[in-house]
Amino acid sequence: MSAQDRLRIGPTAVIVLLLAAALVSAAMRLSELLPVQYWWQAVANPDLNAYAQVLVHDSVLPRFLIALVAGGALGLSGIIFQQVLRTPLADPSTLGVSAGAYLALALATLCVPALAASARELVALTGGLAAFALVFLIAWPHRLSPISLILAGLVITFICGAVSAAISLSYGMGMTGLFVWASGSLTQNDWSAVSRLLPYTLFGCLAAFLTRPLELLSLNDEGARSLGLPLFSVRLLSIILAVLLAASTVSAVGVIGFVGFAAPFIARAAGARRLPQRMIASVLIGAILLLAADEALQQAAHFMREIPAGAATGLLGAPLIAVFLRRLPVVETTASPITEKRNARPLLYLAITAVVLLALIWISLSLGPSLNGWSFASPSQIQSFLIWRLPRLAAAAAAGILFALSGTIIQRMTSNPMASPEVIGVSTGAAFGILLLVLLAPSYTPISQLGAAAAGSIVSLVAVLLMGYRSRFNPEHLLLFGIAINTAFAALIAVLLGMGLPKIFGILQWMAGSTYSTTPTQATIAVAVAAVALVITPLFTRWLDLLPLGEASSKALGLSTPVSRAALLLLSATSAAAATLLIGPLSFVGVMAPHISRALGFQRALPHMIAAALAGATITTCADFIGRVALFPNQLPVGIVATLIGGPYFLWLMRKRVH
Question: Which residues contact 619 (CB under 8 A, 6 or more apart)?
């Protein structure tokens, strides 16, 4: 047996073992409820006077089937997304479908609770399709190119998430059920969800298996057009089909996003090369993953509180990604930046941005509401305000700089505009460390919180560095493994939030990027760390200029790519961790500040980083001011406001500039 055959058998064997374990688990649970001789009767014609038979017919069996149907639909949706967008980083949540569905249900729960209770699936489906419509309109000027769709979907996801977080912070304890639903729930009381989801899934399978046009999408645009493919129409119809599959699944069982990413990945790792093979394998693997995860959490429910299915799939799928990563041949990403136009007057733009930042700092320190209305403070009054306003302002600006530098480094290092500090798991690792401390410790101090966040960040960083070393710091390997780490921590966070403990919700403001409790000492540390980062990062500009040229070109110019990528990854992770420890996982700035800088025409590494740092500081400074005064005397976290400010601005830039 060849080495290649052995590599393919590994993932296949794991999936077969998962299926076998799931079936054994299901049989064991059935035998606990009913003797074997009554199984068929419970399935076909249950005795209404026998509680166990009714339970099997109306709850156990529908849950078993909904796991298979939903998992298969998500796997198929994921492979379509990845084929159309030509990137293994795409999944059903790429276009904001899950975030839109979650936001719609949150709003309906608060505003029209009767509608949310009676038409839950319809509300979620409407929200998912509305989010897709926004992404579609934003990407339309770019003729729905893959990179524009992914970036628009990412920003819409951030915006929907920010509004949802604001709702959660305002109605924390009342949103426990929504937290559980957001992590996916397969609990069934009848056959209604199966009957609604199954037709969509069957239609999607029949339509998607017309694979010839989809196969041609793997070519570049010029090659596909030369073969007579109506590229725009095929891409649009394929995306609508994938969104319909994902939205219908979300409306039936909640947000279960990782299956759509993991199933196509494992299918390729198992040796499925042609598109028809990958599609069939993705459907089967998606169904098995979700079924195995659901059976595992039902068995675990004997010993602990049952956790959501979406969190279980994240905990199951992330290790599989890590195990099979080296078995997958990875193609270098072909993502292009937003614009290739250079800025003819970079110093002027930098000066204008710096002036705007200074003006925002002055306004933030001096302007505010009072008993007599809005007014600017006098110099003597500002002195009394500094102790309250300056520390949080300094921390916000420093965090914006650090996140912007981290995002710029990792985007240039990987040549991937979707890369961000959250991709390497640093932000979610820190958030999980804090949440775990709050849950387990009877009491805690700011120092212990910082230590817990640092521990979570270090675990993520070490894991990514070890995987990066094994793969010679291949950019796409780093991104894929980072997504696995991030998903695992996000799943664990969802489990903790779903527990509904009062002290858990006290940390939500920090997770949203709050500067409320920043002390002068913390602010001083933040500014010092940001200053050190600004001094150090210019030393790496040559590496950041060469790495986007590709592996071969970088080596030809004398660059040791493994060493340079390891150092840059460490610098990026350290910057993101320092900012996360101070104000929470505000990764939006790390995604958007580099894009805003590039969209303004800064292409070379040094001006790109400087402009991104200024943009990041400007966004967070403005966000801190608005969050402080917009709902006075109540306040909004800087993370939420930064998303609501930077997101629409970035979308406006996308519509103004074509690739």
Answer: 400, 589, 592, 593, 642, 645, 646
Q: Per residue in 212-243, pLDDT tens?
A: 788 877 777 777 777 777 877 888 888 888 88
Give a yes or no: residue 19 inside a domain.
yes
For residue 623, what are the domain limits? 346-356+391-656
Query: For the chain, how far is it from start to end, CA to CA, in angstroms?
Result: 47
**191, two tokens:** 């056959």
Residue 527 is part of a domain; what is its CATH number?
Answer: 1.10.3470.10
Beta carbons of 278 and 207 less than 8 angstroms apart: no
Task: Check whether residue 559 and residue 594 sit in a common domain.
Answer: yes
Q: What's the confidence (pLDDT) of residue 475?
A: 64
CA atoms lying within 13 Å on the CB side of residue 439: 17
pTM score, whole prediction: 0.75
Any idea what DSSP says for residue 349? H
Give the residues across from 22 on adjacent strands.
Answer: none
Q: Give dist(CA 315, CA 183) in Å, integer.
A: 12
Q: Is-contact 329 271, C-beta < 8 A?
A: no
Q: Give residues with Cβ within 8 angstroms of 633, minimum separation 6.
A: none
Give me the number of domains the chain comprises.
Answer: 2
Contact present, 485 and 325 (Cβ < 8 Å): no
410 and 554 housed in the same domain: yes
Q: Are 302 and 351 part of one and the same domain?
A: no
Residue 342: predicted pLDDT: 66
What does the pLDDT read at residue 333?
41
